[in-house]
Amino acid sequence: EVQLVESGGGLVQPGGSLRLSCAASAFTFSSYWMHWVRQAPGKGLVWVSRINSDGSSTSYADSVKGRFTISRDNAKNTLYLQMNSLRAEDTAVYFCARDGPPGTAYWFDAWGQGTLVTVSS
Amino acid sequence: DIQMTQSPSSLSASVGDRVTITCRASQSITSYLNWYQQKPGKAPKLLIYGASSLQSGVPSRFSGSGSGTDFTLTISSLQPEDFATYYCQQSYTTPPYTFGQGTKLEIK
What we know:
The complex is a heterodimer of chains A (121) and B (108).
Chain A: E1 3-7, E2 10-12, E3 18-25, E4 34-39, E5 45-51, E6 58-60, E7 68-73, E8 78-83, E9 92-99, E10 108-111, E11 115-119
Parallel strand pairs in A: 2-11
Antiparallel strand pairs in A: 1-3, 3-8, 4-5, 4-9, 5-6, 7-8, 9-10, 9-11
Chain B: E1 4-7, E2 10-13, E3 19-25, E4 33-38, E5 45-49, E6 53-54, E7 62-67, E8 70-75, E9 85-90, E10 103-107
Parallel strand pairs in B: 2-10
Antiparallel strand pairs in B: 1-3, 3-8, 4-5, 4-9, 5-6, 7-8, 9-10
């Protein structure tokens, strides 16, 4: 069974940094594009960032561009999100999600359980 | 960016009811529309991709239709486990991969 397990969330002060990890198993991680999606408390889903299968191409939502960096280590089957200059409005549960089968049109067919990031003084 | 608008924002229904949720795109997205179900405290789950294709393992009471700008998710006979929040998401022009605001389906 496909599994995605996030870690690294927690409480951080405004302006601080945090790195999230997402460990993947039971599928060929290196073949899939991967995403981060977040959900503020009581709010809807918001796409954050995407990385292609070999890590050579990335994209970001305007709200995090220049502050967040997505990366991956295909040897370790792990996806990362480095979050810098954190703001209160970044407070959310962060989900990693797998893109659809290679060559398909961008849906998220597997999700982790999420990790909570709280930005507060 | 393409905006996605769902209606209604919330809905009360009974077990056995037929329910329809609508999603409208701010411009044509052909059939690049996906639907997700999310239960409280859980990760979203893909139900429908490409407007009408049922994801493996999803019960056949769920169906999707539409193209262009107007789409629907239909649950033919509500079951107790279907009470959740539903999101549409466009994948026509990416990034960003925009979601609708969600429709909360509650028990009447």
